């Protein structure tokens, strides 16, 4: 495997949250255990502040896309000058930090496109901070769609954790708006992305469960006809494409099926609650369909413990491993 294939750009997320701390911890742990080469993406002075406190014997090397080999010691950093020193205040939510969060992701995408790495993992963001910067934002998947030009209806979130893989047909939006936006095309697109991702995980003929929209998937129109109009024809189309899709069935019943490899949820909470219940903060969130391997951790910025040097990098390490398996499969990310 080439160096580029084993290199992952790790953005530090909101610089005033726990992102920089867990990014530094994860990068050093990956290096120690011969994991993928990690290139930290963020303001160098922010990264250095955590390295100096937590790992004073380590060194940093600022790089650019022309650097093809890892340093002999220390950590590689793709420098992004996005945050003023006066705005670096761990535990504080601010528009300046939100703007920096977006700048780090933008730089990471350009780094991957230039051949510096094969994938991106992003540490947690704050939607409040990004919006305070005046930037339209509803989570990493929509941002990736915008930055890559893929379009919101082509990029889907797969939440992985607790033995579950759930792709979301809609995500961060008002529930009424999400339901109004659902179409058979959207459900088919989410399920096809799930099937491609499962192939990368080594599941050649995946079985995918499609959640119903209404309780009991409408129960033949008793609880509404939305499923008859949307999920039923979507499942028929998927089966015609050769994808082993089942449903629609109520999410409460379908989640009990352990013979299914993934599920498609119709809206945010329908997919997030079961994964977060089982996986807690260890979930990984993978963006599919943007032409680039991108994933983030399933937990937040934890401003209450930011700067206290007690944050756990376990989720970042798991996400690095997960996205590494996807980065060499173009059919998954395209």
Describe the structure.
With 334 residues, the chain is an alpha/beta fold. The chain folds into two domains: 1-150 and 290-334, Isopropylmalate Dehydrogenase, CATH 3.40.718.10; 156-288, Isopropylmalate Dehydrogenase, CATH 3.40.718. Helices cover 39% and strands 18% of the residues. It contains 13 helices and twelve strands. The protein has helices at residues 19-32, 44-54, 95-113, 127-132, 140-148, 175-181, 184-200, 226-229, 231-240, 251-254, 268-279, 314-326, 330-333, and strands at 7-11, 37-42, 60-62, 75-79, 119-122, 156-161, 164-168, 207-211, 244-249, 262-265, 284-288, 293-297. A twelve-stranded mixed β-sheet has the order 3-4-2-1-5-12-11-6-7-10-8-9, with helices on both faces. A hairpin with a 2-residue loop joins β6 (156-161) and β7 (164-168). α7 (184-200) packs across α9. It is elongated. The two termini are 21 Å apart. Residues 1-5 and 327-334 have low confidence and may be disordered.
Question: What can be said about this structure in brief?
Answer:
This protein is of the alpha/beta class and 334 residues long. The chain has helices at 19-32, 44-54, 95-113, 127-132, 140-148, 175-181, 184-200, 226-229, 231-240, 251-254, 268-279, 314-326, 330-333, and strands at residues 7-11, 37-42, 60-62, 75-79, 119-122, 156-161, 164-168, 207-211, 244-249, 262-265, 284-288, 293-297. It is elongated, with a radius of gyration of 20 Å.
Poorly predicted regions: 1-5, 327-334
Contiguous helical run count: 13
Number of strands: 12
**Gap between N and C termini, in Å?**
21 Å
Taking the sheet with the most strands, its summary is: 12 strands, mixed
Query: How much is the radius of gyration in Å?
Result: 20 Å
- CATH superfamily name of the largest domain? Isopropylmalate Dehydrogenase
3D shape: elongated
Main sheet strand line-up: 3-4-2-1-5-12-11-6-7-10-8-9
The helicity comes to 25-40%
The CATH architecture of the largest domain: 3-Layer(aba) Sandwich
Number of domains: 2
